[in-house]
Structure formats: structure tokens, C-alpha cells
Amino acid sequence: MLGEKIILGTKEVSMDEKGRMIIPSFAYPTPDEEVVFTVEDKESFYISSLEMLKNTLINLKNERYSTINSQKIFEIERRIEQIYKTAIDIAQIDKNARIIVPKFIRSEIIFVNDETQKSTNLIAQGNGYRLKYYINKNAYYNSLVK
User: Fold this and answer.
1) CA-CA distance, 68 to 65, in Å (whole number)?
2) Per-residue pLDDT at 73 exceeds 80
């Protein structure tokens, strides 16, 4: 399952004109697994296991109910809200470890400055329990400088 183990590694992957993209093997993709796309900025997006995300939300909610510290509750509420705010779409991994990137991400993030909307290369980076995809090498290198 995606994110079941810590995801480490970086790989350049291509996305074709239909939006199909391979999930690198270092992320442990499982056929028929559902993944959630989230967006936090204009140069990248994340893919997380839907099951892992649901488990995270359940754990956060349980932690919220079991704590008496108001600052901790506020922090947990903020994290839950952030997860719901940034979720864009859900897709299913096929038997070839591919997914279809949602049209919103393709049009608003990846191809925002490119009217041709042909195939493109993205940089996939393991980011703990999820994958982060950068729209190009410059975006990836800029993130390393930050």
C-alpha cells in the first residue's frame, strides 16, 4: 500500500497527454488502491493513500477527544481542516501502477503556462507517507534551496 512504509527516493516520471502517470515502485503502489490528490502550492501536488489518509483522520479525531490541552486540540483541528481543504480528487491505481491525474491539476498546475498540454515530465519525490510531484525540474530544485 502506498505510504505503508516510509517513502524515500526521487524519480523523473512522464505524464502522457491523457494524464496517465506511473507511480514509482519505491512508493509501493498496489493495484486498485485509491489515492487522494492534494495541492498545497502552484509548483507541486501530493498523492496519498486514501486508506492511510482515513486512518490519519480517525487517529487525529481520537487524539482530539482524548486530550484536555486546548492548544493541542486547536493544532489537531487545524491539521484536519488542512487535509480537507487541500484534497482535490481521488483516483485508482491500475495494474500497471499508473493513475490518471485529475483535469484540475493538469490545467491549473502542470499546464498553466503551456497551451500545448502534451506529455510532460514530472519529478516524483518520496515525502514520508506520501508522494510529492513537482511540475518540472526547476520547481524541484527550488524546493531544495528553500
Assistant:
1) 8
2) no
The kind and range of the H/E element at 45 are: strand 44-49
Going along the chain from its start, the domains and CATH numbers come out as 10-145 (3.40.1550.20)
DSSP tag of 23:
P
**DSSP letter (8 states) at residue 84:** H
DSSP, collapsed to helix, strand or coil, labels residue 135 as coil
Q: Give yes or no for a contact between 22 and 54, defined as CB atoms under 8 angstroms apart.
A: no
Q: Where are the beta strands (DSSP E) in 79-146?
A: 87-92, 98-100, 120-127, 130-134
Each residue's pLDDT tens digit, 48-71: 888 887 887 787 777 777 766 777
* Integer-rounded Cα radius of gyration of the chain: 16
DSSP structural state of residue 31: T
Burial of 33 (0-12, 13-18, 19+ CB in 10 A): buried
Its pTM stands at 0.78
How open is the CA angle 70-72-75, to the nearest 5 degrees? 110
Q: Residue holding cell 512522464?
A: 14
HSE toward the beta carbon, residue 52, CA cutoff 13 A: 20
Angle at 98 between CA 58 and CA 93, to 5 degrees: 35
